[in-house]
Design goal:
By secondary structure, the protein is mostly helical. The chain contains 14 helices and no strands. Helix content is 67%, strand content 0%.
């Protein structure tokens, strides 16, 4: 009996140690963000990274109190927020509509099209990098291009390129279709008997019941787009179109300090602005993620 009572405490101790291991990198990043470049370059590594005197310069920049060194910081935040919100709305809408279509409507080649969509998830992103870049640069009648896609820059270095790539979430479509396969058709039939068209059936009867799965799609999409550096970094050059993730990646490659190394306190401070919202978002909506996946698993 005594041994059984001690077992839960052993579990809590193990969980506590594991949590400390995972939290420590964030703690270390916070400490480094309060250093100057000279302090970081001349201070030997230590378990407690805080060094006196504390420098609040990078934190003031991160909080938009002083943006002299990073005048484009407001653009980074604005672009990240607007792009994340745009993708959440459209990804949820496309996932729901496409999942419903593949589950309920009948048309020739439906299963083949869905299989092709699933197969695209197996293609490594590095394979599609060059074709996607050329497609954006040679898009006809956009950005000064003629009908043959020549003479201009297409979608490159425009705000539109931040809003058109990767709008389709294949996993979201798959989860909605998986859930709809066992969704009671009687609910939809009752709506049609009452005179509802397909759009009213979809958005008034089916949509509310699919909220757990759609919440999962929205949360994971938000975290993914907020942390996405690839599209802004590769397809845009002007700082006005950069997001916070792309700015951090650009600083890592070009921000060279006095001692010939990247300005890590500056980079890590900006990285905190990128990491903390994702951690908070995950902590708040974790139960929706679990319930969404559980809902798809039970219904599928």
């Amino acid at each position: 009996m005594t041994i059984r009572k001690k077992i839960p405490w052993v579990r809590y101790i193990i969980l506590g140690i594991t949590c400390l291991i995972f939290i420590y990198p964030l703690f270390y990043a916070v400490g480094v963000s309060f250093m100057t470049t000279n302090q970081f370059a001349t201070t030997p590594p230590s378990l407690i990274p805080f060094q006196r005197p504390l420098s609040f310069f990078h934190m003031r920049t991160l909080l938009l109190i002083n943006t002299q060194r990073e005048p484009n910081m407001p653009f980074y935040y604005l672009n990240s927020v607007l792009r994340t919100a745009w993708y959440i709305v459209w990804t949820v809408l496309i996932s729901f509509v496409a999942g419903y279509v593949f589950a309920r409507l009948r048309f020739r080649g439906k299963n083949a099209i869905f299989l092709i969509l699933l197969m695209t998830t197996m293609i490594p992103p590095v394979v599609t990098m060059a074709p996607t870049y050329l497609m954006m640069a040679r898009f006809p009648l956009i950005g000064g291009n003629n009908i043959l896609g020549q003479g201009g820059q297409g979608f490159l270095d425009t705000y539109a390129v931040l809003l058109v790539l990767n709008l389709v979430n294949i996993l979201g479509i798959f989860l909605v279709r998986l859930s709809m396969n066992t969704f009671p058709r009687a609910i939809e039939d009752s709506g049609r008997i009452d005179g509802a068209n397909i759009f009213r059936v979809m958005f008034q009867l089916v949509f509310p019941i699919q909220k757990p799965i759609l919440a999962y799609v929205a949360i994971t999409t938000g975290v993914l787009i907020w942390n996405d550096w690839y599209v802004p970094f590769v397809f845009t050059d002007r700082p006005q179109f950069q997001t916070l993730a792309a700015a951090v990646s650009r600083l890592t490659s070009v921000a060279i300090g006095q001692y010939g190394i990247p300005d890590w306190p500056r980079i890590i401070a900006m990285g905190l602005g990128l990491t903390i919202p994702s951690v908070v978002m995950f902590a708040i909506f974790q139960r929706h993620i679990v319930s969404g996946l559980a809902s798809a698993a039970v219904k599928g």
